[in-house]
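Batch job 17 of 40 flagged for manual review because the log was empty.
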Amino acid sequence: MQAEVGYGNSPDSTIAGRQAAGQALSNAGRKDPCDLVFLFCTARHNQEVLRSAVAQTVGDACPIYGGGAVGVITNENFGYAGDQVGVACIWLDEDECTLLMEDGLLESEYDTGVRLGKQLATAGIQKDSPVLLFYDAVDQTQDQMRLLMATWILDGIEKGLGFLPDLTGAGLQGDHICTPTLLYAGDNTASHCAFALKLSDNICVDHVIMHGCRPASPYYTVTKADGPTILEINGQPALTFMDSLLGPALKPDDYPFFLLFGINHSGHWDEFDEDNYASRLCLGIDKERRGIIMFEPDMVAGTKFQIMCRSLKLDYMKPKIQKLFDKLDGHDPFFAIYIDCAGRCAGYGGVELEDAYVIQDAVNGRVPLLGLYTGVEIASIGGRPRGLDWTGVFCIFSKSASDGHTQRACRRAQPLHTEENLPATEAALTPDGLEKLNEHNVSKILALDARSIAIRHELEQKRHGFALLAELAISLRSGNSNTNIFHMATQRINAALNMQKTIVLIPSADEAFVPTVLQGYSSEEKAGLAGSQINIDEELLHIEKPVLVTAVDPPDRFAGLRNTLKLPYFISTPVVIENKVSAILITGRMMEAPPFLSRLTQNDMETVQAISILLGSVLMHQRLDDANRLAQTDALTGLFNRRALEWQVAELLRQNLTYDKMSAFIMIDIDYFKSVNDKYGHIVGDQTLKKLAKMLRNKFRATDLIARLGGDEFAMFCTLTTDVAPLVAKVEKLLSKWHDSPLKASKGKSFHSSLSIGISVAPRDGTSYQDLLHRADIALYKSKQNGRNQYTVYDAKTMPK
């Protein structure tokens, strides 16, 4: 077997798909088509268009598996919350991969799992069979988003199959705010389904668990629960218990995406082993029932758990990955997948380093790597596959080096009990010491964690802001219109700053503003806002003071604008050119849901204001460039005018004389042009001038200077590569072509015209613009004297100086 990976990061789904798939095929260096493709992408992409682009690249017959991902990791690239696409092309080389799929997750995760389990039984799955499981983790069909539960799917599979094989996989989502995405299920796309990929038995999938969390408390017991909501702990309402335990250091509103519980699936007082702890992350709080809502529903009554503290350092990861490589028992690794909790990326998790860097360094090119940031991770803990939170699952795919059909039981890496894997202050932690931890220490540990994470998150957001400004400073210079510039900027703002919607409003004739760019809006929303005349409050037009609107503000503050734009929380800042508001940039979020959609801050406002200043600067430069271009351009033909030609020729003459190059100056007149105007009118005359300008552009090089001096007079300046003979040949062809080309007059009539041309050569005939112009004009006059429709090269011996 062989696998190769590719990475794309273009906002254009077609380009991104071709880029990622093409890179994977190029890395493989094979002529035969691959047998299957893994494809993962963020919610920003049009998944149907993306799939089509990948299929066209790898071959329409190739099945494609995957779906949404918050971000993508490969051996050399990674990114999240943007336009990332990851592709793995796999050649099975006579091995097999079978798709088994069931829909119906919206009706019942458990029943869907039962049906999928029965399919697995029919396919002959054994406990040690390698199986990958992917499912759609998000349900947005109702008014309120809900997460689909891996625990219930796995319980159903166990019921239908009779046991659980050593499954590895993920619950897929396309971004941190749970935008609905599709699954790629072989030959088509699907939603709200689960599918399993059964690999040949001679393929082994070994994995290792990495979450970096350690117990910070004694054991507590869930005494009442309802699905994923813990209602009571140690006989007390869950919120009441936790609030009294943690005190003022950590408020209940801070629990979501921060408070971590750990379920130990080995002996409670065994030596700590990360591989036996399932991390459970708080999703939200139920104030009415005083409950704590978890991502998974397996913390049922009777579950014993500990409060966990997370390591903000990642030095525990690389040794575990190396250990896994060392334990492959003679199997050749050919591919690796890293399934990573989306909350662990440094921009939100508060860690000091992206774990993607650590994974890339640990793999070190030994196998192609495809990583994805997910909603739920699935892997075995305590001998049973489970849905996991705040966890990275690193998987190595391998085959026997000696016999392609030798089977062995895949296994997790053995526990590592070395000083290098444990924080120095915790390496000697004993069960007795753990029992003696008191609640005061727990609250202090978590308070310090929260503070550190908040600081790191703020720094990471600043880094994203600076990186965005640097990116925009380069890319915006290439924009060729205001709309194009605004489109590029708003697209990158949404991706880099994790904004949901960004709008650019421009002034209309009646002092209102109209939307010109709507980023993050649906087609229906765009249609509703198209052409809208929006009245803007004076406060939003202040050229030095951006406006920040959050949930702290009264609902009636800018209520009309918030309702019109369907954007309750936003930052607004004008784009100013020469002390006038040329546009208004508004960007924001639909909700405040920390940590991924945190409340907008002063830092965010400063970043957006800096972007608006940059936009103003770029647009100002464009105006100056346009003014300069107009000042140098002949309005009728688009050629250089006399002043521009003189300046450009002077510069080129200086360069050519320095490098001892020859040049030619050409004067061109349309013969009897006055009679064309008199006979056919000035409109036909203008069309004649435009046609000659077009012909000159087509016949001569892009590096040749072409200008209209006025009336029917044209001039050219050409740098010669050898002598003047090749240029003279071009001039002869120009004369012939122009004379033979009919020129349209009114009422279907046509007429013909001719040219008179004079040529001077530098440095022989002069080294200044005026000298060359004068002598070319003398040669032109000679062509007219000799009967027109011809050229003359200036000759100092026979012509006046």
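Reviewer: the log was empty due to a logging misconfiguration, but the result itself is present. The first helix runs from residue 13 to 28. Unflagging and moving on to job 18.
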